[in-house]
């Protein structure tokens, strides 16, 4: 998706836009014409890493342990997004797709090696999504042998696959395989399909009025609310509605700052969140420290990105947060710590966008396909969050910590904060500022936000 690099009433306004929805399905996506070979290979390797493992007595198809030959990582965002979305779709329908392959006698009658099974699954999902129509091929695309082999196989079984799919739908009394999905997953897909595109305007580079004018030239018209769904519309939000899980966090930090206070950002995820924080403090003398960038090889790319966006007050720290001491001489003017810990992420509406933007683990797709996070994983995440939050509280010169997750689980939200507050030595802490976007809760300010028009987030100051 395009990213508009601001909220009326605030120094950086935020926009939400909605284009007309297609009638082709719950996600509002146009009918598929197929993908380039490279997308299938990348999607197959993603699927291989996140597919559902079954006990030996329930295994229908063997997948092997070898990934397909790796391809150079594409810098084309649309290719990456298509690969993740295809892998995620195949994962949600893994059981159904395996059943169709067995029922159509592709397995175990073929001699295709096990390591191609993941490729067969993702290509079968796309094949049935195209209603078993031929793929539109590009003249300048370099074919990949494995993809051509699997495509030939699926085409030769086209009639049997269609019949197996029809029997599956009849068995479940479903209009399509989408209606076979559990209700929790269908509701999540519905939320994702109705979510507007939220964006903030980089006022270091362009004025809000120029953006409004550009959108109008492209056929969008301004409305008071993006609940209008029948036309190309955009709205200027009054209450900090970018991706709330990140925009609310950076606006909360800004509300806690004096002109010369520094900020420490932990586990930032998207570099655009760092840039957003920089734009919000553009008129201050504040410096933004970002920790946890382990690879110094990324420095030139990040510096180029920040320079391009007009961000001049960002300093990258290569140490992990837990290895930085509270007495570090660089951080003595830090008054607010923004902590965005790794979390289950089940509050986001579109996990693929979240993975791409926040550089998150693809394991999130498996959790979404199952409708939840395992207790073991939740316990590990909560422990990591607790360790980071209590470490932040050791920075005695900091006057506030802003803690934000995209989790719907109390174990990662209220429980972590409560446990950390019990650890806190109040005698050594400076009294926190008040946070105007939150309501009072115990010894901190916290808010849990749920909206069908935005990602869910938990925010505590």
Automatic annotation (TrEMBL):
Molecular function terms from GO: methyltransferase activity; RNA binding
InterPro entries (alphabetical): MeTrfase_RsmB-F_NOP2_cat, MeTrfase_RsmB-F_NOP2_dom, NSUN7, SAM-dependent_MTases_sf
Active site: 406 (nucleophile)
Keyword presence, Glycoprotein: no
Chain ranges of the SAM-dependent MTase RsmB/NOP-type domain: 173-461
Tagged with keyword Lyase: no
Pfam families: Methyltr_RsmB-F
Keyword terms: Acetylation, Methyltransferase, RNA-binding, S-adenosyl-L-methionine, Transferase
Any Gene Ontology biological process: methylation
PROSITE patterns according to UniProt: SAM_MT_RSMB_NOP
Residue numbers spanned by region Disordered: 1-33
PANTHER family with a match to the protein in the record: METHYLTRANSFERASE NSUN7-RELATED
Recorded family membership: Belongs to the class I-like SAM-binding methyltransferase superfamily. RsmB/NOP family.
Record's protein name: Putative methyltransferase NSUN7
Source organism per UniProt: Canis lupus dingo
Classification lineage: Eukaryota, Metazoa, Chordata, Craniata, Vertebrata
